[in-house]
């Protein structure tokens, strides 16, 4: 079922406001296990090394570690309680709003985000897809998302890998809470990102399927950034 058609673009919010300083916002987005965080770290190191002032922090889900662990425990046990999904997404949206409001954009040349509030659309639609949750919860979450906007229009890097590679990387990396969750969940989220143009109107596609060592991967993302964005 195409949940995006089902909800008639209920969640999609692309607002931005003007900022006094010519600060650039760089967004890394993509499914779980595609390497967003590593690439964002490489770009952060490069920009700081070039004398730029950069704001970069961990993905927001990692800031609510206790709630994230609880959410994955339900996934691990196969509990498909859509109320749990609503609780977690509601908490996550609140954290995004607080996070954005606490950034002093005028201090920085670049602000790097590892996913944004817009990415919650896919995780919400994937896990809240039955009545009465569709009727009651989704409009509430949409209203909260509509209250959030970017300070300036972001440059979005959509990190892409083959589905099999993303699953393999999830299973290999050192995140215990991810290891016992059914692979179907990761595949569902991966498929959701086929509709990425519904939440980001423009993005640059970065193919991260090659198994490169860190030095080569760092050179690749820096070259990509300088060619398309900088």
From TrEMBL:
Pfam families: dNK. Transmembrane segments: none annotated. InterPro entries: DNK_dom, P-loop_NTPase. It comes from the Eukaryota. SUPFAM superfamilies: P-loop containing nucleoside triphosphate hydrolases. Residues 26-196 form the Deoxynucleoside kinase domain. This is 8824_t:CDS:1. The lineage of its organism: Eukaryota, Fungi, Fungi incertae sedis, Mucoromycota, Glomeromycotina.
């Amino acid at each position: 079922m195409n949940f995006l058609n089902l909800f008639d673009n209920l969640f999609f919010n692309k607002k931005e406001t003007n900022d006094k300083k010519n600060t650039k916002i760089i967004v890394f987005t993509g499914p779980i296990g595609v390497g967003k965080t590593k690439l964002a770290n490489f770009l952060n190191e490069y920009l700081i090394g070039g004398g730029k002032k950069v704001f970069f922090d961990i993905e927001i889900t990692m800031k609510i570690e206790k709630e994230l662990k609880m959410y994955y425990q339900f996934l691990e046990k196969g509990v498909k309680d859509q109320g749990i999904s609503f609780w977690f997404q509601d908490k996550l949206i609140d954290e995004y709003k607080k996070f954005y409001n606490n950034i002093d954009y005028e201090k920085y040349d670049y602000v790097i985000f590892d996913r944004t509030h817009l990415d919650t659309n896919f995780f919400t639609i994937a896990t809240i897809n039955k009545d009465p949750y569709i009727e009651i919860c989704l409009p509430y979450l949409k209203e909260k998302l509509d209250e959030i906007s970017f300070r300036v229009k972001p440059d979005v890097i959509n990190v892409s890998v083959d589905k099999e590679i993303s699953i393999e990387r999830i299973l290999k990396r050192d995140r215990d809470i991810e290891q016992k969750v059914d692979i179907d969940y990761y595949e569902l989220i991966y498929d959701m990102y086929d509709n990425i143009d519904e939440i980001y109107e423009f993005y640059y596609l970065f193919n991260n399927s090659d198994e490169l060592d860190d030095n080569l991967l760092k050179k690749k993302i820096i070259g990509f950034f300088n060619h398309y964005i900088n």
